[in-house]
Amino acid sequence: MDRVMSGDRPTGPLHLGHYFGTLHNRVLLQRDGAELTVLIADYQVLTDRDAARDLPGHVEGLVLDYLAAGIDPSTTIVAHSALPALNQLLLPFLSLVSVSELERNPTVKDEIAQSRRAVNGVMFTYPAHQAADILFGKSTLVPVGQDQLPHLELTRTIARRFNDRYAPVFPVPEALLSAAPLLLGTDGTKMSKSRGNAIAIGASPDETARLIRGAKTDAERHITYRPDTRPEVSSLVLLAALCLDRDPESVAADVGSGGAAALKNVVVDAVNAYFAPIRARRASYAADRGFVRGILRAGAQRAGAVAEATLAEVRTAMGMAY
Ligand code: ATP
Ligand code: MG
After folding, report:
1. 7, CA 20 to 30 Å: which among 14, 74, 152, 284?
2. What domains can be seen in the chain, in order of their start residue?
3. pTM for the full model?
4. Ligand number nearest to the C-alpha of 10
């Protein structure tokens, strides 16, 4: 059975891109019996901003989103800053990658372009840090969105190089993409917490309707599902299809000449119906912040022991166990 790891930055509430990109897969894998760890990547908030604002609020918000989506409350959910042994893995891992490999990463390049600020060392090296996030628990499967594939490739490289150079400590993990590996936001670019283009899982039905009705579409009236040539319309069609458990072609065909306004009505109704029980669960968990904090404490304890054990193996393999 797979050991599954996946995580998110505590930069804001999780959105529909997270849900259909990775979160739902985490829930399904866990229901199938996989051992799931969810990592809250708090140091990685500092990749594209000087200070991490309202971390406790964002971290608790993520836990609420996880529980609302159906992640079991007994899951190991932990912030990587709470795991010193995980962070120490970054040092040997950095020694296994070249600067040009870090420079070539297309997702990092894109994020640097988006953030329009000087590139700090954490931004430049965070894919290697993410390798530590994945490998500290010897994960074998990582449900992610498309932007994470270059990072997963680097993680696989690091695992292989460590195993070749020292001793076979790490599995070489696989990425798991969903049917919506790159859901677009209301402006037609990747839906992201930081880009002001997201629909939060916990948004109200009215807010959801307002955001979807304002989403970018195109000038063609007839609705079709053609992700390559009509990305904005197709992303909306896909969103409705996922919520309705239908195929996107048939959703598009049903709307047809109704145009973008009719499509948006279908999407609003589908999203609000699908997320109604999830939003209700979120509200009930939100009433018990002590429960949320307890989950994080227990997660830090369990994951801390795992990270210590892996670091001990790494140090032994490297001849550093004095
Ligand atoms: P930020 O803008 O702060 O970077 P984000 O929205 O990109 O936030 P992350 O925390 O960076 O979210 O990503 C967490 C996980 O969700 C990753 O596996 C990522 O691939 C996935 N993900 C994020 N946005 C989308 C999206 N629009 N479609 C599919 N998957 C996504
Ligand atoms: Mg991101």
Report:
1. 284
2. 3-182+288-317 (3.40.50.620), 202-284 (1.10.240.10)
3. 0.96
4. 1
